[in-house]
Amino acid sequence: MQSNEPNNLENSKPRILTQKRSTQARKLELSWIIAISCLPLLAIATAFGIAPQTSISNIVVKTIVEEVALPVLENASSESFTPELFWVTETIRRDDTLSSLLKRLNIHNEEAYTFLRTHHDASPLASQLKPGQTVRAQTNANGKLIELHYQINHDSVLEVASNDSGYFAKTNALVFSKHTVLKSATINNSLFGATDEAGIPDAIAMQLVDIFSTDIDFQTDLRKGDRLVVAYEAEYNEGLQIKVGQVLSAELTNDGKTYSAFMFRDPQGHVAYYTPDGKSMHKSFLRSPLEFSRISSGFSLGRLHPILQTMRAHKGVDYAAATGTRVKASGDGIVTFVGTKGGYGNVVVLQHASQVSTVYGHLSRFAPGIRQGAKVSQGEIIAFVGMTGLATGPHLHYEFLLNGEHRNPVTVALPSAAPIPSIHKANFLAQKAEYAAQLNLLRASNFASIE
Ligand SMILES: [Zn+2]
Asked: Architecture of domain 294-407 in CATH?
């Protein structure tokens, strides 16, 4: 993985630079025209500049500095006047037609238009102009299409090229190269604010929440200045990040205390996170069966029931959430009940090891495959929030029972999940050392990211 990296970077970066240069060149040309048309004004400014007024002479100096940037312009303009080939990358817009897109891609030859519009093999482009997707085209100076790449989805790309008998198109599988991406972020307001700023994808931020959630409550515990360092898998095609995979390692410093997590993928492909010495980062139960939630009614032995208007114990926790919010199994277990039950409305009951059962009420619907006797694993989506049964608004009613007795799910002591199995311990420690070295590298360098 590591040894590939420098090669791939060198392959991809110049291409990105070339693409960027064409738009940059246009901008430069434009600014050059503006600069020329401003010349008479500058002359006047210079005339005034003779007076010992530092502010005006500063302006003149600035203008000269801009003109020094000319060599770049020369380079760029020679590119557009010689019959060289160049790539243009365009993002499909919501109101794009095939012609408007091709125009922006600088494609002007009739043969290409006809081929792309009518040929069956090219139809993924003509019939599936997906806003937001990018199209790359290589043309010559006369606007003749040489080559075109359109990424149809996560896995495949439409490639158009020509030979002696004209244009042809084929759909190919995207070739990915895997990289490890290292990023660091400082938290000012929220985790997501920090990850956005550092360019860490949401999918990775969500994993971080899951990994550290037994140690840190991301809604209340974060402090300004907390720091995050993370290494994660990403797959690239032609230098563009196409998808992200798993967090490999992460370090979160919260209020002066540092938590580290290292991923281990067992030979069956199961992923779990461990502390540096191999203890599980996970508990055998999730604290909350919802991804993000706010407790709207806590566990209580006596409260006024909002609908029945009588004092009743509330032997669970209510999580306010929009209808349709995904409900996760809080631990590995077996479905012992799925259906409707009085005030609970649609409800799922799970039986877990160590005499624990959990109850999920007021559901709008159940996830596919959730039936009595089905095995579920921790974090698996079992149902969706609703307001069936006795409920004043959409929320999840969640109960945690130990030996048949209700416990407060928010405060009950949750057992840790099993540590790294001893047969994998040596592998884990070796891999951990490698990951830790990567994190150290980023922490020690002045870079916020290494891709
Ligand atoms: Zn409730």
From this structure: Distorted Sandwich (2.70)
Per residue in 263-291, pLDDT (tens digit) is 999 888 889 999 999 999 988 888 788 86
Which residue is associated with the tokens 């190919």? 172
Distance 368 CA to ligand 1 centre (A): 24
Kind and range of the H or E element at 169? Answer: strand 166-173
Task: Determine the average pLDDT of the residues in 23-40.
Answer: 38
- Contact (Cβ atoms closer than 8 angstroms) between residue 88 and residue 103: no
- For the CA atoms of the chain, what is the radius of gyration? 30
Summarize pLDDT for 143-175 with one digit per residue, the tens.
999 999 998 887 888 999 999 889 999 998 887
* Better-predicted residue by pLDDT, 419 or 214: 419
316 alpha carbon to ligand 1 midpoint, in Å? 6
Q: Are 149 and 142 in contact (CB under 8 A)?
A: no
Q: Ligand 1 centre from 290 Cα, in Å?
A: 14
Give span(s): CATH 3.10.450.350, the chain.
86-173, 177-282+445-450
| Distance of CA 337 from the midpoint of ligand 1 (Å) | 18
Contacts for 369 with CB less than 8 Å, ≥ 6 apart: none
**Measured CA angle at 21 (ends 20, 24), to 5 deg:** 90
Confidence at 243, pLDDT banded by 50, 70, 90? confident
Q: How many CB atoms lie within 10 A of CB 443?
A: 13
CATH of 177-282+445-450, one of 3.40.50.300, 3.10.450.350, 3.30.70.120, 3.30.565.10: 3.10.450.350
pLDDT the model gives residue 310: 63
Q: How far apart are CA 368 and CA 23, in angstroms?
A: 49
398 CB-side CA count, 13 A = 30
Give the rounded percent of residues in the chain with a pLDDT score beyond 90. 43
The Å distance, Cα 433 to ligand 1 centre, comes to 46
Dihedral angle of Cα 347, 351, 354, 360, to the nearest 10 degrees: -20
Ligand 1 centroid to residue 409 C-alpha, Å: 12
Query: pLDDT value at position 228?
Result: 92
| Class of the CATH domain delimited by 86-173 | alpha beta
Q: Across 352-442, where does the E strand assignment appear? A: 356-366, 375-376, 381-385, 395-402, 405-407
Specify the domain boundaries for CATH 2.70.70.10 within the chain. Answer: 294-407
Which residue has better confidence, 35 or 135?
135
Tell how far the Cα of 410 is from the centroid of ligand 1, in angstroms. Answer: 13
